[in-house]
Amino acid sequence: MRKKIVAGNWKMNMNLQDGIALAKELNETLTAEKPNCGVIICTPFIHLASIAQFLNQDIIGLGAENCADKEKGAFTGEVSAEMVKSTGAQYVIL
Asked: What is the pLDDT of residues 13-59, one digit of tens each?
């Protein structure tokens, strides 16, 4: 049987400080109450590396809200899967 997951993202509704507060709150809540599923938080790319510093990735997975379908090239504003991975994120919403 596949492991169930719950994943969420915040779109354009939080700034970095709000995201850090959310990561800390999730750490506390999910440490106290172990969920029976995987939990993943997906952030805008600009916040991935910062949130990774505060998120307990033994408990909560980290992902990006999007990535490009190209490996590299002159695609202004796009983010590759390798760039996402370099932040410590393991997931992406496509």
From this structure: 999 999 999 999 999 999 999 899 999 999 999 999 999 999 999 99
Domain span holding position 13: 7-88
The tally of domains found in the chain comes to 1
Q: Find, among 4, 49, 53, 45, the residue nearest to 27 by Cα.
A: 53
Q: Report pTM.
A: 0.89
CA dist., res. 59 & res. 79, Å (int): 26
